[in-house]
Amino acid sequence: MSSAAGSSTPTSIAAQKAYDYLFKLLLIGDSGVGKTCLLFRFAENSFNPTFISTIGIDFKIQTVEIDGKRIKLQVWDTAGQERFRTITTAYYRGAMGILLVYDVTSKKTFENITNWLKNIEEHAAEGVEQLLVANKCDQEDKRVISEEQGQLLAVHHGIDFIECSAMTGENVREAFYRMARRVKTKHESKESAQRADGSKSVKILSDPGSPLGKSLGNCC
Amino acid sequence: MESPRSSAKAMLAKLNLGSFSGVPQPSEPQSKGSPGPSNHEKALIRKLEEQNFHNATTSSSIEQQRLVNQKKEEIERNKVNKQRIPQMNGAVNDEWEIWGNALKDWPEFSKKNSKKVLPMILKGLPNPLRPMAWIALSGADIRLHQKYSELLSQESESEKMIRGDISRTFPEEAMFKDDSGTEMLFNVMKAYAVMDPEVGYCQGSAFIVGMLLLNMPEEDAFCVFVKLMSRATGYSLREMYKPGMGELPVLLYQLDMLINEHCPELHTHFKAHEFSTSTFASKWFLTLFCSVFQKDLSIRILDIFFVEGSKVIFRVGLALLLTLKDQFLGRDLDGMMSLAQKEGPKFFARDPDLLINKAYAPGIKISTTKMAKWRKEFESARKKELAEEGEIRWLRAENRNLNNRILSLEKENNTLAHNLIQRSVKHAIEAEEKILLGKELKLAKRHAKRLSGGSADEVLAEDRKDVKYTEEFVLELQQELVKARLREAEATEHLKEANERQKVLEAENKELRRDTQLADALAEARNSKKNESEAIMALRDLQKGLQANLSKDAISSDSALEAMVSAAAGARVDLIETKQQINILEASMRRISQKRDELQKEIKTLRETNLTLKKDRDRQKDQLLQEKSLRQCEESQAKIDQLEESLTTTTFPEMSHEIPVTIPTLEESDKLIEKGRA
Q1: Domain-by-domain residue ranges, chain A?
Q2: pTM higher than 0.90, yes or no?
Q3: Labelling B672: which of B76, B191, B345, B416 has CA 20 to 30 A away?
Q4: Could you tell me if B534 and B504 are in contact, meaning their C-beta atoms sit under 8 angstroms apart?
Q5: Could you report the per-residue pLDDT of B255-277, keeping only the tens digit for each?
Q6: Cα separation of B221 and B210, whole Å?
Q7: Nearest chain B Cα distance for residue A123, angstroms
Q8: CATH architecture group of domain B124-233
């Protein structure tokens, strides 16, 4: 998708592009829970078990339509190993929605969700939409975390919850759509509030902050 | 033979000619027209065998033998090829000879021929020499072979994670589709993690080891990897992989600066689209391009890395960006990402030399001084940032501590108030006991008074007066209580206000955390801290005031009321008891007077009998029975005396019998006291 580039105002870019909104989503969770597979299932609707480990950061684009609005989802995929947080947390701030992924066949990945939530609290924008995603729900024989446990954790932290499987595709679309809808609702209510304020309504589609934050390059 | 003085540029020019035919495998015969250089080959085999012998003296590696054999076979194959391709030149054999010579004592060679080394390596190592060359170039210590098997018998915390990544490292490569291949990769990663627990395993490193394993045996790959990780060498991959990954952002910043220096236009475009070096170049550094390019090109880059260190990553990265500059400039974020990750690497896969040549073309300059300057720049900026973050973290911690202190002070305050109440209650109970004792004394005195002749009415009147006084007192106390309660309510209101203020401050603090403007954030943090300490002071004052109030008014009045109520109840019970006692006394008095009446009647009748007997005696004055009647008279007189005596004795026991009635009253008041306490 190579659209007309150049540094025009956000409004004119939006006008030229084939979508109404651009939302940035972020996938986080322990290494091996299936973040990349979920994203691949969502973007390509297929399953590839021979992915290479995500080194650092990556992203994919998928455009969806919700309530007559075309929404371009820019989904950032992150390395799950803890030490990569040095790099990945810089991408939290620009995210409008964060999908926290764990693996129902691994207790540790479930327990670590609390740590990932702490990371969100520390690095993400306030009020960022969050969704707890339990992956690999097709592997019933290996399951160690029940749906109730997941639900309970989500309720405890006041966030939404969904179980899905990147392998079968079950609920994957639903997870991303649900997140997109939530971000859209929040975005539109914010927009109308701005309009009500009498201020000039500008469709600022992405967070102006650099994904890198202050730590790199952009300071000089 | 190459002249030692030949420049890199000349070398590159020559290399281009050589690679013109397509796939430039250095092992391929490309000699032009010269007669079969079998002498060269023989010499080379001799040298290799010498090298092998030399190696065997330091390690008993069968692999070395295998390599030599492999090389012999290859040379034989080349001979056959040569017959098919008559046009050849001596370059390949020259190269082999040079490399053979160089590898015999690489440190010495590289020192003596420092200018020759780079052009040599840019051409790529001859394939069969590569395993040996990587060991020599890196200076790997093959004595680690022994340690390797030891390390494999130990366990590492990282094993699970390594296992999870093995199948995700070169999944398309035949070697790693096979269990023995993945096991080798697992072994090397695990052995390193055991040996260097601080670094353990870092995602990305398996691609480098995988690339080593595609070219050399497991034990050698381990030794080479250890060397690449070592800080003592110029490679220092370890710094990049350590938890915290502190080196990576430095490299990314340097790359960003280099992009800006080489093509400001591209830099601006990247910045406008938030296409940062960390987004597209993290894996360049973390896998030395092994996860980016095709195998052939990755191996060539690794060859150069052994000589150049991370400089080659910057050069190759810049070459990729600058070659595809126009395409990058015409794309948005998604397009650029795909260009950097897929289309670009695919484009260069056609010809590995193209990218290598671009990377070392004069257009790309990497100044060591500038790199050092940028490193310093970045590190001081990070230090500052860390310090600021540290201050914010410190302020947050301080805030938490203060909040905890408020909580503990509140708790302390509560316990103090509780203690105070208990003490007051104890005092009240003691006072109540005193009053009760006083009352008992009064009662006892009253009894004594009555016994000594006071009338029941008087006692009753006195009791009534007592009750009246108590009721008035209770009323007064109740009014006082209402006042005290009002004061308490006010105090609670103050406390509530203080709490609200604290809440507001806490909310401010929370906002502060979110603030991107660090300076503002710090200022606000300081302000709010000040406010908070003020609030705490205020709260403390309030607590003090409250404590005082509570001790003086609320608590004392509460306990006083309790005491008064129980006193009033006690007084009422006392009154009832007194009334009952009076009733009992009246009843017993009635009984006594009845008995007295009876006794007086008996005395009367006895006196009458005595009188009649006297009359009889008079009548029978002269009779003989005079003596008898006299005796009878005396007897009846004695009986009278006895009765009179009994009258006096009966009154006393009856009266003294009343006294124990007050004793149960005491016991009951004890009970009352207990009730009051409860």
Answers
A1: 2-192
A2: no
A3: B416
A4: no
A5: 999 999 999 999 999 999 999 99
A6: 9
A7: 9
A8: Orthogonal Bundle (1.10)
